[in-house]
Design brief:
mainly alpha, 69 residues
Length: 69
């Protein structure tokens, strides 16, 4: 059990080290690219959440939304 825990702890420490090295090597262009991807994924999630909420509200009020055409 203890050997298993040591392997997990060493793996976590290794991943933290790799993450630190990767972050320290990033240029401004890398940061811009990565932040654009993260922001795009967040906005897509917000858009899906908003669409589902609007559809739920429309359904509760009896409004039929035809998105097919």
């Amino acid at each position: 059990m203890r050997d298993w825990l040591d392997k997990i702890t060493a793996g976590i420490a290794y991943l933290c080290s790799v993450f630190g090295i990767a972050v320290s090597q990033m240029t401004m262009e890398h940061w811009y690219f990565l932040s654009s991807i993260v922001l795009g994924v967040i906005m897509a999630g917000v858009n899906i959440w908003h669409k589902r909420n609007m559809q739920r509200i429309a359904k509760e009020k009896g409004v039929v939304i035809n998105e097919a055409g």
